[in-house]
Amino acid sequence: MQTRESSEPLVLDMGQIVLRVRDLGQALTFYRDLLGFRVSDDSHAECCQRVKISTGGGEIVLFEQEDFTPLGLGPQGLETPLRLRVQDFAKAASFLELQGVRVTREDEHGGTVWDPSGNAIGLDDRPPGEEPRSHRGTGGARRRR
């Protein structure tokens, strides 16, 4: 395998993540109205059932699809590869619970919420670089490719 000679990173930022949802209207209510994302492009909402939403660190493309497996890891789908940073997790969790959103608290700084399509989304108020408890000491052997 050939290695890169430049010290400049090849990847500049996260760009966008595509998240499949069952109902675009319900997803927008959750992500825009409850979580505070802004709609950055809805020009494909009618023809292709997709909308881009944004926040400070990147974009999520909400893509309506009737039949899909919701985002979730682990045997019961309680873990997630997608973590969003919030200012105060305890306040965010309490607010979302009052809105009827399912919330699982890992500790006082983070946990998981589920959107209306069943996608598991991590919320965390730790500073960048500090890992959630669920990522620490997971043990087990890692596979090498």
Describe the protein in words.
The protein has 145 residues and is an alpha/beta fold. The protein folds into two domains: 12-68, 2,3-Dihydroxybiphenyl 1,2-Dioxygenase, domain 1 (Roll); 70-135, 2-Layer Sandwich (Signal recognition particle alu RNA binding heterodimer, srp9/1), CATH 3.30.720. The protein is 17% helix and 28% strand. It is built from three helices and eight strands. The longest helix is centred in the N-terminal third of the chain and has 11 residues, at 24-34. The radius of gyration is 17 Å and the shape is globular. Residues 136-145 have low confidence and may be disordered.
Task: For the structure shown, list the relevant keywords.
2 domains, 145 residues, 2,3-Dihydroxybiphenyl 1,2-Dioxygenase, domain 1, globular, 3 helices, alpha/beta, single chain, 28% strand
In short:
It contains three helices and eight strands; from the N terminus they run E-H-E-H-E-E-E-H-E-E-E.
Residues in helix, %: 10-25%
Number of strands: 8
Structural class: alpha/beta
Number of helices: 3
Which parts are unreliable, with pLDDT below 50 for 5 consecutive residues or more? 136-145
Which helices and strands, and how do they pair?
Blueprint: E1 16-21, H1 24-34, E2 38-41, H2 45-48, E3 50-55, E4 58-64, E5 83-85, H3 89-98, E6 103-107, E7 110-114, E8 120-124
Parallel strand pairs: 1-4, 5-8
Antiparallel strand pairs: 2-3, 3-4, 6-7, 7-8
